[in-house]
Amino acid sequence: MSMIEAAKKAREAxxxxxxxxxxxxxxxxxxxxxxLAAKVEEIKAANAIDVENSKKxxxxxxxxxxxxxxxxxxxxxxxxxxxxxxxADPVGKVQLQTELDDELTLTRIAWPIGVIGVIFESRxxxxxxxxxxxxxxxxxxLLKGGSEAKETNRILFDIINEASVEAGMPEGWIALMxxxxxxxxILAMDEYIxxxxxxxxxxxxxxxxxxxxxxxxxxxxxxxxxxxxxxxxMDMAVKxxxxxxxxxxxxxxxLETLLVHEKxxxxxxxxxxxxxxxxxxxxxxxxxxxxxxxxEVATEEDWKTEYLDYILSVKIVSDLxxxxxxxxxxxSGHTDSIITENAVNTKIFMNLVDSxxxxxxxxxxxxxxxxxxxGAEVGVSTSKIHARGPVGLExxxxxxxxxxxKGHIVADYAxxxxxxxxxxxx
Length: 426
Hints:
Helix 2 packs antiparallel against helix 5 (71-85), helix 2 (22-38) packs across helix 7 (150-166) and helix 10 (234-246) crosses helix 11 (265-277). The chain has helices at 3-18, 22-38, 40-56, 61-67, 71-85, 124-136, 150-166, 180-186, 202-210, 234-246, 265-277, 287-290, 320-330, 343-352, 410-414, and strands at 94-101, 104-112, 115-119, 140-144, 174-177, 195-198, 224-228, 255-261, 282-285, 296-297, 311-317, 335-339, 357-360, 380-381, 389-390, 397-404, 423-424.
């Protein structure tokens, strides 16, 4: 099937899917979960092919870790689906209701966007999370994963498609893209596709934005920062920085640049270096940092780099204001955190850092749809229009207005015969 045929079928399916009951969608999600659990050995076999091919191509170890989809990850995505089933169905939720006049009532309800195209990295678990989120929110979806995960993506798609259609979902609600040509072809399909969500480098997101008329939610670089303020609890700061950087390095919410107040740097940096060395992490530092600890040189380019590896750039700053300016200059608007016991500095940081997610005394790794209780996410939006931060169920909805009347006509209001009441109900 060509991509234009797949997009047409997705458009047709999206109309039916939007009107599906919560019970029907939840039954389909449970069917998907059961099918994934039943075919775990087949999934592992397909994934082994992808991993072996990537090893032959000498793919970096962090990328291989992201690519592996072993039994524990299958269990994790199944648990995610169960969590998603437990969430209230947001489709049709009344957001606003106004009595315009007697027996003339306007209601705004949450409604699916329609057809969503998602282009994501070589993480097979992302395919499951994205597709199930789209189903729960009543959206059809076109998926393109990284080529390294080709075999895994294919079997996951087949399982999800078959299980959901057998459970009553409309055929064509989900489709898989497998080539760059497929991606380029959908960029011109604005009559069928309502939203694109590209996940990847800033250059890739910008390319998509510049080559399509379809609205785009940008999920660009995750250049995340943590600022260790002078009043920070040292033990807490070490623990948070280590978790933010090393808990899982190949994700967009991993820490990439650390900012340290000059008054705490001499005590903090040696302790941090020791803790990170145990995790195999490499430090790159500014001139002031290198005067305190031995590490590699951090250049201007490092402040702009998303490593996705066991590398952390470190800069010593003179005060809170310098830290905020640095973050707003070099950050990607993803996730930034302050470690401090100073309530005033906390408020200033939380208000002035211009990012989708701003934390206090917490690891940047909490920036995640599942951890936020959204079920999962299709991505973390660094855009400022429609949806920002982890894009879960609500981020995949817009709304529609429904008006109920009893033969009302505008002429009566234009002539002054009748007047609006505009009484707020909800």
